[in-house]
Design brief:
The complex is a heterodimer of chains A (481) and B (504). Chain A is mostly helical and 481 residues long. Chain A is 74% helix and 1% strand. Chain A has 20 helices and 2 strands. In chain B, 75% of the residues lie in helices and 3% in strands. In chain B, β1 and β2 form a beta hairpin. The chains are: A mainly alpha (481), B mainly alpha (504).
């Protein structure tokens, strides 16, 4: 009989706080009349703030693990979790007016969102295959429910079904890979696993490589890399914009963490194999994502394809296999999430009672009616296109630099050439806003003060980080030193 | 040589801050926006004067240097300074911005503050480009400039502006992303982004050729050189007058400047190896584009093509140097070629800017750029006609104007390389005169063509002001180019010594 050892709960304190508070929101929300729904939002934001503060309070100098090594709080986890909390706060605030307009201003939105955040935080800190899977499922199940949240919308139900079926399949693939790993190595803990892989590599690498393929496929599914991207445009388009805003931002960060834990921490010794796969995935994502985005007339769909191309860039950073490469991929992911929150944040403001604003033409003449928001969206578009002085440029620069460093100059050339194609459709958005005349309907944007302030700060942060990227970059570098 | 106070930073950031202020002032009070813009542009111009007066003409070293670490992770620095190549271009930039602000004074009525702000911010970016000594800092300014220019053409441009702006943006972007990859490669080799570390980096011939080609795409699009010039006529035709002026007077110079700052010193052996390519492209620009200009029906298009032909002299001057070094290695000839290219850049800045302003003046009255809609303008606008004929003469390279000096220097230098290069280059004296003067004949002289021309009123005091300032500049540089040549001389000589030493 092994003795029961009291695990060190300190590293998991943020998750515990989060869970307790989320349950509190769930219960309080039950007793709130509809007109006082604002308290739910307040509580949800308070939960995130409190969690963020706890993360800062328990942040270790180096890294601590707990629960028999299956839970790890390191620099990377701290930074990523904080980023997720901040971005989710933005998402919650931006979506309030949208939810009211579409009669889905319910507390469940926040509860599900908070559970999704909890799932992401677990994914980030997980250091065992099982825990990664659990976190991922907590995230995915919450997202399925959030997408179908507007039950009157057919498109949303369809998107939710699609996401559910394909997501379940991806989870199955991932789980299958994990089960083979367990069969070969007899452990689920990533540290021990990496050790065993290191020993067994010379013996028989075939089963490991076989299982790794499933892991990479499952991962690509979740991140939305070509050719496993089919669900992404449909889900982006079909979901209520408030949910697209959420899916398009925070889970990307968790996806990056999952890739790092699985590929780098767990399968670091198989680098030669998976980096080849990632090259194919990255190039395919950049090519398909950028080219198909050109043909889109729906803004959400266009951003979905643009996300796919950005995933290609993130994979470039990971596949370089160096600490700078990982840091640049992390920087890219974080800044992409910030940029996407501006783009979707402006889009969500354009929504009116009963009508979704989601086509590119809905943006026409935005400069005439609301030049402040047009400017913000333009900054976001230029940042996605990677033009200086926005942060997108610096993110691309750092990824390209890590690729050139490992002598894959051709890959860098492919990446930049396809970002020229990317520029085309981002410019089109700017053109529509500044050049096209407004549609006949009156475009007035409700301007709640808190939304206005947060969105402006969010948008200007793209410029601020573009001019002074050192601070954020230092955190990213620290995570892999 | 470090300066006591950060003059260059002040120059870069004053117009940008001014632009933001104008933007914040908004359109409620357009005349206020105009006044703030004028104030900032004049202050910036006055602030550039110390660059010239306190410039040390005895050294090729960088002056007014500021160097601070900026992004430690990649050793990127905020590193600015000027030498004899960049200083005149900065003066040109701040000078032309004042002209543009005055020229737009009561012409632009739609969203005045955004218009003025775009030009002020662009001025800051352009000065930043010319003074950056860190490759990434250079790239950031180089690219950022596209955004305000894109918006200027898109918001205030002509009917077909979407096509034009997309073409302009995509062409320049495709060139510059390859430049970025080349710069990153150089960084991985040298461990720093400082341009001077690149200058002293040893590279194999294959590396040099690949890097040279990446640079070439970036700068050839900007210049623009034949055959990647096609975006320029489109962009010029659709751009508002101010946009055309800045595009022709400053932005095209970025390409020429890039050759001098990057291509020649970083990849001297590849430049020597591939000089035939550039010389062929330049001569094609001079001769073929000259003929193309001849048949244009649209005044702005004609001037755009003439810009391409004139910029051909700039690149010809820069690369014919290698032919001279191969041949009898006449040091004076090489200096003449490079300095000729530089003088041509500055002079083209004045002349093409002035030509576009002239077209702008009549366009504002007639709303047509077609040559066929004009005729006999001299009868109703005598003062304007005098200016336009003068600038046209300068464009055709009349001795006594600045247009003559640069072209003459380059042709003279080409003779030391090869008779045929010089011969082909010299055809510009015929072609340039032909297309410019033929346009003048059809637009300015002759009988009054129609009632619209009869109704024209001569230029007002504001228009007289900016045209006469430019006329003085063209004349001064033509009669006495020495102050300009003197400041660039040590830098050019040093550059020549540098590229004469093989890096292999």
């Amino acid at each position: 009989m092994t003795e029961f050892v009291q695990p060190n709960l300190i590293p998991a304190l943020p998750e515990i706080v989060m869970l307790v508070m989320t349950c509190l929101v769930l219960v309080v929300d039950l007793f709130l009349p509809q007109e006082k729904r604002g308290y739910s939002l307040f509580l949800a934001v308070a939960t995130l703030v409190l969690t963020a503060l706890t993360i800062i309070a328990v942040a270790p100098v180096d890294s601590i693990s707990s629960f028999g090594g299956s839970f790890l709080l390191d620099q990377m986890a701290v930074t990523l979790k904080l980023a997720i909390c901040v971005i989710t706060i933005l998402v919650f605030v931006y979506s309030r007016d949208y939810l009211t307009d579409h009669d889905i201003y319910k507390g469940e939105y926040y509860v599900l969102g908070l559970f999704a955040v909890l799932g992401m935080m677990i994914m980030i800190s997980a250091h065992s295959f099982l825990l990664i899977y659990l976190g991922l499922e907590l995230l995915s199940l919450s997202l399925y429910a959030m997408i179908a949240f507007n039950r009157k919308s057919l498109a949303a139900s369809e998107a939710a079904m699609k996401y559910f079926v394909l997501g379940a399949m991806a989870s199955g693939l991932l789980l299958y890979g994990i089960s083979i790993f367990y069969g070969v190595t007899g452990t689920l803990n990533i540290d021990q696993f990496a050790q065993v892989v290191n020993d067994k590599m010379s013996e028989n690498p075939i089963p490991l490589a076989f299982a790794m393929t499933f892991i990479v496929v499952g991962l690509s599914f979740k991140m939305g890399a070509v050719p496993f991207h089919m669900w992404l445009p449909d889900v982006y388009q079909g979901s209520p914009t408030s949910v697209t805003l959420f899916i398009g931002t925070a889970p990307k960060i968790a996806g990056f963490a999952m890739a790092m834990r699985l590929l780098v921490d767990g399968l670091g010794d198989l680098y030669a194999d998976w980096s080849q796969m990632l090259i194919v995935l990255a190039v395919a994502s950049m090519v398909i994502g950028n080219i198909i985005a050109i043909a889109q007339t729906n803004f959400k769909r266009m951003l979905a394809y643009s996300t796919i191309s950005h995933v290609g860039f993130i994979l470039l950073g990971i596949l370089s296999g160096t600490a700078t490469g990982y840091a640049s991929a992390m920087f890219y992911t974080l800044t992409y999430a910030i940029t996407a929150s501006v783009a979707f944040g402006v889009l969500i403001l354009l929504n009116r009672r009963g009508a979704e604003a989601e086509n590119i033409s809905d943006l026409s003449g935005l400069n005439d009616s609301n030049d402040c928001y047009a400017d913000l969206l333009a900054i976001a578009m230029f940042s996605m296109a990677g033009l200086p002085p926005t942060v997108g440029f610096y993110a691309k620069l750092s990824v390209l630099q890590s690729v050139v460093q490992i002598d894959l100059v051709w890959l860098a050339v492919v990446a930049v050439l396809f970002s020229v194609i990317g520029l085309f459709y981002y410019l089109r958005i700017v053109r529509v806003m500044y050049f096209d005349k407004p549609l006949d309907r009156e475009v007035t944007i409700k301007q709640a003060l808190d939304v206005k302030i947060l969105l402006s700060a969010n948008g200007l942060s793209l410029l601020g980080l573009g001019i002074f990227p050192s601070g954020l970059m230092a955190y990213c570098v620290l995570a892999f030193s | 040589m470090y300066s006591e106070w950060p003059l260059l930073s002040v120059l870069i950031w004053t117009p940008i801050i001014g632009g933001i202020l104008v933007l914040l002032a908004g359109d409620r009070d357009p005349s206020g926006a105009r006044k703030i813009a004028l104030l900032f542009s004049i202050v910036t111009f006055l602030l550039t004067l110390p660059l010239y007066t306190q410039f040390n003409t005895d050294t090729h070293l960088m002056q007014f240097v500021e160097r601070h670490s900026w992004i430690d992770a990649f050793n990127i620095e905020y590193f600015v300074g000027v030498d004899g190549i960049s200083m005149p271009l900065i003066l040109l930039t701040s000078f032309m911005t004042v002209i543009v602000v005055i020229s737009a004074w009561d012409i632009i009525e739609y969203r005045v503050s955004q218009y003025m702000a775009a030009f002020l911010i662009m001025e800051g970016f352009m000065i930043g480009t010319f003074s950056s000594l860190d490759a990434i800092l250079f790239y950031i300014f180089f690219e950022s400039m596209l955004i305000p220019m894109f918006l200027v053409i898109d918001i205030w441009g002509g009917a077909n502006r979407i096509y034009a702006t997309f073409k302009f943006f995509l062409y320049t972007f495709i060139g510059s992303v390859l430049l970025l990859v080349a710069l990153i490669y150089l960084y991985t080799q040298s461990g720093s982004f400082a341009i001077f570390d690149f200058h002293h980096l040893r590279l194999t011939l294959t590396e040099q050729i690949l890097i040279f080609l990446a640079f070439l795409v970036a700068f050839a699009v900007k210049v623009p050189m034949w055959p990647v010039h096609t975006w320029l006529p489109d962009a010029h035709v659709e751009a508002p007058t101010g946009g055309s002026v800045i595009l022709a007077a400053i932005m095209l110079k970025m390409g020429g400047y890039g050759f001098l700052r990057f291509s020649l010193p970083i990849t001297p052996d590849a430049s020597a190896e591939l000089d035939w390519l550039i010389i062929t492209m330049s001569l094609t620009a001079v001769v073929y584009i000259g003929f193309v200009a001849l048949v244009q029906q649209d005044m702005k298009k004609l001037i755009a093509y003439s810009s391409i032909a004139h910029m051909g002299f700039v690149t010809l001057g820069f690369f014919v140097v290698f032919r001279i070094m191969d041949g009898d290695n006449d040091a004076q000839g090489s200096v003449l070629a490079l300095e000729g290219g530089m003088v041509q850049m500055i002079s083209h800045g004045f002349i093409s800017g002035a030509m576009f302003l002239c077209v702008g003046v009549v366009y504002d009255r007639m709303h047509s750029r077609q040559i066929a809609d004009y005729g006999g303008v001299v009868n109703t606008m005598p003062v304007f006609a005098a200016f336009m004929v003068f600038f046209a003469m300068a464009n055709a390279g009349l001795p006594g104007t600045s247009g003559f000096v640069g072209e003459f220097m380059v042709i003279l230098a080409s003779f030391k390389a090869s008779f045929w290069i010089a011969f082909l280059a010299a055809t510009t004296l015929i072609l340039g005169a032909a297309y410019t003067l033929w346009m003048i004949k059809r637009v300015i002289f002759g009988e009054i063509a129609n009632d619209n021309v009869r109704a024209l009123t001569d230029i007002n005091r504001r228009e007289f002001l900016f045209l006469s300032i430019l006329a003085i500049a063209v004349l001064a540089l033509g009669l006495w180019p020495d102050p300009l040549v003197k400041v660039m001389h040590p830098t050019i000589e040093n550059l020549l010594n540098h590229i004469a030493t093989s890096k292999l």
